[in-house]
Design a protein that fits this description.
Blueprint: H1 2-10, H2 18-25, H3 30-46, H4 55-63, H5 71-87, H6 94-102, H7 105-108, E1 115-118, E2 128-130, H8 139-147, E3 153-156, H9 161-169, E4 175-178, H10 181-198
Parallel strand pairs: 2-3, 3-4
Antiparallel strand pairs: 1-4
Helix pairs in contact: 2-3, 3-8, 5-10
């Protein structure tokens, strides 16, 4: 299990293929989707050589503590919660989407706020895409693929400043909403903790935001 977890950490970038599923759902051609995802994967995989990928497993082993990684299922739970929140409200303007997301307890309790980083909250939202739950944000290339193929508003948990700068320099035509990484992760972890507690398992919620 120890060796498997280390390999999973190094191969984490393969989770990004989930972005291709999301892109396809919104009509982006498969060839364009694959090219965008491959650029993202190469960028992140290159950073593997800088990562101390054994630290989490090593700490658990030294403490004699069982360890399981359940991040991806929690991310999918988070994605579904946000989708329901957006669809239950108005989606005519970008501001409508921002307001719907901001009502979710974890985002309401966050020190950060849901923001429009590209475009304007006054713009029509048009066709929108929630691009989360695929390992990391899609960055420049995936957002560009959405915007150039019928999607007006892309929703990320966060975006690197270098990607945002390139979007602005290239004057990409679209709206980019960023929500906040900690708040998003907290939704999934609160969902898991709540279920475990319902089954009688004691949980300690460390470093996540309140879901009420």
């Amino acid at each position: 299990m120890h060796t498997t977890r280390l390999v999973a950490s190094v191969n984490f970038y393969k989770v990004f293929d989930r972005h291709m599923d999301f892109l396809a759902e919104h009509g982006v051609p498969k060839k364009i989707s694959r090219q965008a995802v491959e650029k993202l994967k190469e960028r992140v995989e290159t950073r593997n050589h800088a990562d101390i990928y054994s630290e989490v497993v090593g700490a658990a082993k030294a403490l004699g503590m069982p360890l399981v990684n359940i991040h991806q299922p929690c991310d999918e739970y988070m994605r579904q919660v946000i989708l329901r929140a957006i669809k239950s409200g108005k989606t005519e303007y970008v501001l409508d989407i921002v307001r719907s997301i901001s009502k979710i307890p974890e985002f309401r309790n966050a020190a950060t706020s849901v923001q429009v980083r590209l475009g304007s909250e006054k713009n029509k939202a048009g066709h929108w895409a929630l691009a989360v739950g695929a390992g990391t944000n899609g960055g420049y290339h995936i957002a560009k693929a959405y915007w150039q193929h019928g999607v007006s508003t892309v929703i990320y948990l966060h975006v690197d400043y270098s990607d945002l700068t390139k979007m602005r320099e290239d004057r990409l035509d679209g709206n980019l909403v960023v929500m906040g990484h900690l708040a998003g992760d907290s939704i999934g972890l609160n969902g898991l903790a709540g279920r475990l507690e319902h089954l009688g398992v004691e949980t300690v919620r460390v470093g996540i935001l309140a879901g009420k």
